[in-house]
Amino acid sequence: MVFRSAAPLLAAAFTGLGMGLVSPPLLAQSPAASPKASTASAAGATGATGDDALAIFERSKEAYRNGRFDEAAALLVRAYDLSPHAVMLYNLARAYEGSGRIDEALQAYRRYLQAEPHPPDRGAIEERCATLQREIDQRADLQRQRDDEKQRAPADQAPHGAADRPGASNASSPLPWVTLGTGGAALAAGVVTGLLSESEHRSASADPSAAGATSKQSTAESFATAANVCFVAGGLLAAGGLVWVILSPSSSARASSGALTVTPSPGGVVVGGRF
Fold it and tell me: Which among 47, 169, 204, 229 has the fewest CB atoms less than 10 Å away?
């Protein structure tokens, strides 16, 4: 992945930077999306402001190169304030993605498309925006599911002492174990889909074609989303199944069967119990 040059103001200095990114990954760079450069006149673009913007941009490249994405994003915001060129917004979006701030990355991409109405890779960037929007929506759905599970959990738990009530069944139900096993299977599926996502991401990074890289990256993100869903659902099911097993009537009955009893007698006290 590369930074794009901030043409035309700093076109001679803002050169491309080869850079591999961590998850969530960014758009693959193709010849059609190579760093933008311009030979347009830089009249009025010299002076302290341009020099300051260039210096800050160079610092942002260094931070980005070393994986300090939050620092790179903060520097790019400062550089854009001094020299508001559209390509700065594209670089800012990629820095936000590198740090996992996908909401801010989506906003920066959209600002870039507004400021640069006819970029050669507009289609790829719009597809990236759509992908980020899906990730944001899916994350919100998962959060709602987790909140719903937390609200339902107290109502699903069996009351303490249920096994001691007359007529309470001591038979062991298979449902807690089925729930626990289903959760374990979902967690295993999450591991598998996570590995597939990582494989597709590496393939997308190595693909020189923008179309091929975008397709593979989209597949990788689909696998990553499936892995997240499996991990969340599997964790909830496994935790719920374990709690269910512990609080089931049969478990309570087994625990109470070993309780000690102390009974007064004419000669003292009698201690008894079953183990």
Answer: 47
Q: Is the pTM value of this prediction over 0.90?
A: no
Instruction: Scan for tokens 């960014």, then name that residue.
Output: 26
Cα 194 to chain centroid distance, Å, stands at 12
Distance CA 25, CA 132 (A): 11
Quote the CA–CA distance of 143 and 136 in Å, as a whole number.
Answer: 11
The answer to whether 223 touches 194, Cβ cutoff 8 Å, is yes
Which among 17, 1, 117, 113 has a CA at the least distance from the CA of 57?
Answer: 17
Distance in angstroms (rounded) separating the CA atoms of residues 77 and 83:
10
- CA nearest neighbour of 72 among 81, 80, 64: 64
The residue behind tokens 């087994």 is: 254
The whole-angstrom separation of Cα 110 and Cα 117 is: 10
For 101-140, write each residue's pLDDT tens digit.
999 999 999 999 999 988 989 999 999 999 999 999 999 9
